[in-house]
Amino acid sequence: MSTELHVVLGTGPAGTTLAEHLIDIGHRVRTVSRTGEPVVPGATAVAADLTDPAQATAAVAGACVVYHCANVAYAQQVEVMPRIQTAVLAGAAAAGARLVVLDTLYPYGPTGGAVMTEQTPWRAVSRKGRMRADLDAAYLAAHRDWLLPVVMGRSADFFGPRVFNSSLGGAVFPAALAGGTVLALGDIDLPHSYSYLPDVAAGLARLGADPAADGRVWHLPTAPARSTREVHRLIAQEVGHPLTVEVLDAPRPWGPFDESFMREYAELFYQYEEAQVMDSSAYEAHFGVRPTPLPEAVAATVDWFRAALATRP
């Protein structure tokens, strides 16, 4: 095992999957969450309020690489995420660490269906998108101003093991397996990029290992976009029966997504009303990797949900 310490902030699906991957490739890993609950065998777990600079600094002390995968509920993001950024930048700089940030496509805003590359202009129109764009500009400025080395990895919508709170997560796979009604958003015949979480985690780990990648945004490996309807067909093949799908053509409460959630999500609904295509070819060429083919990723996700549901009371 490497003696270098890698610290993962956040123990949601992304942080947990990344921490597992880092352990698997031989790193010493510390996970940081508000509760400090151990979630990854082999990793040390600590508790910290990442809006508090002193706690964030203590949590990442000794790190060579810090991975920022922490997130908060939609209703809190505009207020809380900038505070987390301030604390994490200060803590990682004090540790002398490199900072790897998991990012979203929100800063681009509506593109009219144009393919998104790392050169796509940031034209966010939503509050959350503008907030993310401001954060990203600050991360790049911190790198440019020699505060600390920073690199960002952007992902499209997650799916995969552990992913419940996603448009292709808990409202899709469990219902597909049980023969219930599957949720879909917007125009399901438009191409839409979905990032497979194990590819996202491995992608962030590679960024953490390559200082030559610093100082910029990368699109993490993501399979070529297909329509959501095509993704549903792949799921149907794996579960062995056609899916019953309810399409929301506008943001409104549905199942676990209550009125308050949908009210916060409404400003991002444009992502399902136009083609949402992310190009990760720059990352793939630089690192010599390919994303997991979508049929293989869907099959593995169905298997995970099937096993997870079988263990529930």
Automatic annotation (TrEMBL):
This is NAD-dependent epimerase/dehydratase family protein. Transmembrane segments: none annotated. Residues 10-213 form the NAD-dependent epimerase/dehydratase domain. It comes from the Bacteria. It comes from Micromonospora globbae. Gene3D superfamilies: NAD(P)-binding Rossmann-like Domain (3.40.50.720). Pfam families: Epimerase (PF01370). InterPro entries: Epimerase_deHydtase, NAD(P)-bd_dom_sf, NAD(P)-dependent_oxidoreduct.
